[in-house]
Write a structure and sequence with these properties.
- The complex is a heterodimer.
- By secondary structure, chain A is of the alpha/beta class.
- Chain A contains 7 helices and 8 strands.
- By secondary structure, chain B is mainly alpha-helical.
- In chain B, 71% of the residues lie in helices and 0% in strands.
- Chain B has 13 helices and no strands.
- The longest helix of chain B has 37 residues.
- The model of chain B has no long low-confidence stretch (mean pLDDT 89).
- Classes of the chains: A alpha/beta, B mainly alpha.
- The interface between A and B is large, with 36 and 38 residues.
């Protein structure tokens, strides 16, 4: 442990973090989506796992949804809960999501929407917390958020698999919306101190405990 | 040290020296402002140049246009600039116009009450409270909207029939024109009240006393003479409030809804429940795309438009004030 190292964390969306690594402003960044062509000059290292849960209001009886239905809801093809089996509702669906600044948005776009843009009836909010709040307040809403956010909202099974750590932590990843959370370093001359930190965060049991406590799923940390 | 003698503060501050220093400071501020305008305009110019007047027009889906613009930087087949801002401009007009009208009426009556009718203790308590409200950060009003007003509108005012009628096009879930106008009015009204009360209290007492002495009642006196005399200040306060409303971004990004949809009053009452996205929140929601040159030009073009309208309103306010100043006061 080196007490002389200080961290400055800027929470400004995953894509901004990559940019900072590319132009040298930051020595490393966190990222929740897989690399894109625009990320040239950066190296992605798998840090831990996260599941993106699909959530409904606790009053909604829905227990399972297929990726196809979720796709159709966010593409504006299914607009009423009566079209989704199991919800016992006959009201209009209020789909909620993130704006394009969010890593969650990109992950959802790739894994659920096949890179087709969300429909105009999707309310795109500026933060994950606002998405959770919107689902909490509105009995007709559906939204998506990472494992760490599942309080006061109801995660539903996706293609029959529950959104919980044990379906996410081991390969093969059973839960369809499992994702790696990456740490991104510059490809050329990454700082040795940063590499040491990343090794520690990836493999030590202490870091694993912190990851699990914070709502992520430690993947490589020794028990 | 003896009373009345000038204390010594190091080197002597002669008038000329103070004049030069303050003058330099003012020049620096002016230079900064000019630089800001030049940078914003220069960066936004490509977007205006490619679209011409149709930049301000309607046609097409703004969100799809923005998508195409930001992605065109990665495909390598040339930049796309096509952008028709009308739904965003219309949303700005509706939300800011609505909020200023609601705020102006409310603020005027509150000010008249505070100055003329409220007992002294109440006025003494309320006027500092109003000043405090005027300085509350907008994001707090945004939270109030997200936690209280938006769910109320979504769950209690909007009917299932109304939601079903627009299903698949937009969601009526409480993020609406109505929520945005109400919260924005709450945000700008204290600013107006604090300016209006100052103006009303500084109306020449002789004018009001003269009216009262003629047997005119207090309401008619304050309305016909006080408010009339304070009109230049009322215009000034309204312009200031309008400028704050137009520039408001974070709060509106939270509650106005995210769709670049143009609510249509011809749809009937339902239009006040429709979501829309004004200009300033569009910049907030798209900052991520600044790395794409055409998207950067588009966002700076929006910023230029906002700057330009702000300047225009100040000018209009100044002209109106001048025309009214023959009524005296402020």
């Amino acid at each position: 442990m080196n007490p002389k190292i200080h961290f400055v964390y800027t929470a400004d969306g995953g894509n901004a973090g990559i940019k900072d690594v590319q132009n040298g402003t930051s020595q490393f960044a966190g990222q929740a989506r897989t690399p894109l062509p625009s990320d040239a000059g950066t190296t992605y290292i798998k840090l831990y796992l996260d599941g993106l849960c699909l959530d409904v209001n606790p009053k909604n009886k829905l227990s399972n949804i297929s990726i196809q239905s979720a796709h159709d809801i966010y593409r504006g093809l299914l607009t009423n809960w009566s079209q989704i089996p199991g919800s016992n509702l006959t009201t209009t669906i209020d789909p909620v999501g993130r704006d394009t600044n969010g890593g969650t948005y990109n992950f959802f776009l790739q894994s659920v929407l096949n890179n087709e843009p969300p429909a105009s009836n999707v309310n795109a909010l500026t933060a994950d917390g606002l998405v959770v709040n919107a689902v909490k307040q509105d009995p007709n809403a559906i939204g998506y958020a990472g494992l760490a956010w599942q309080k006061g909202i109801k995660p539903v099974k996706v293609n029959g698999v529950k959104c919980e750590p044990k379906n996410i932590s081991v390969e093969p990843l059973k839960y369809p919306l499992s994702r790696y959370i990456f740490v991104v370093l510059p490809t050329d001359n990454p700082s040795p101190a940063v590499q040491k930190f990343v090794d520690w965060a990836r493999t030590s049991p202490e870091a694993g405990a912190v990851i699990n406590k914070a709502g992520g799923v430690a993947a490589f940390n020794k028990k | 040290m003896e009373e009345g003698l000038q204390p010594e503060y190091g080197p002597k501050w002669s008038d000329q020296r103070v004049e030069r220093m303050l003058g330099a400071l003012v020049l620096a501020v002016v230079a900064l402002l000019v630089g800001l305008i030049v940078v914003v305009l220069a960066n936004g110019w490509p977007s205006f140049a490619h679209n011409g007047l149709s930049w301000f027009g309607s046609g097409g889906n703004v969100d799809e246009e923005l998508n195409a613009i930001s992605q065109s930087a990665e495909t390598g087949s040339g930049y796309v600039y096509t952008f028709h801002a009308w739904p965003l401009i219309w949303s700005t007009i509706l939300i800011c116009g609505g909020a200023v009208i609601v705020g102006l009426v409310t603020a005027l009556f509150i000010s008249v009450f505070l100055v003329e009718f409220a007992p002294a203790w109440m006025s003494n308590v309320l006027r500092p409270v109003v000043r405090f409200l005027a300085s509350v950060p907008s994001v707090i009003y945004g939270l109030l909207g997200v936690l209280v007003l938006v769910p109320f509108i979504g769950n209690h005012l909007i009917t299932e029939h109304q939601k079903a009628s627009v299903a698949g096009i937009i969601s009526l879930s409480g993020y609406s024109l109505m929520a945005a106008v109400i919260i924005l009015a709450i945000m700008i009204a204290p600013l107006m009240v604090s300016i209006f009360t100052d103006a009303l209290s500084s109306v020449k007492p002789g004018w009001l006393e003269g009216s009262l002495a003629l047997g005119v009642n207090r309401w008619r006196t304050i309305w016909k003479i006080g408010v009339r005399a304070a009109r230049p200040a009322i215009v000034a306060g309204t312009v200031l409030a309008l400028a704050r409303a137009i520039g408001e971004s974070v709060m509106l990004a939270m509650i106005s809804g995210s769709t670049a949809f143009a609510p249509n009053p011809a749809d009937g009452l339902i239009f006040i429940y429709e979501p829309s996205r004004p200009l300033a929140p569009t910049i907030v929601k798209s900052v991520d795309q600044l790395s794409s040159p055409p998207a950067k030009a588009t966002l700076f073009a929006i910023a230029s438009f906002l700057l330009f309208s702000g300047a225009l309103f100040s000018l209009a306010g100044w002209a109106t004030r001048r025309a009214m100043s023959r009524y005296g006061a402020a």
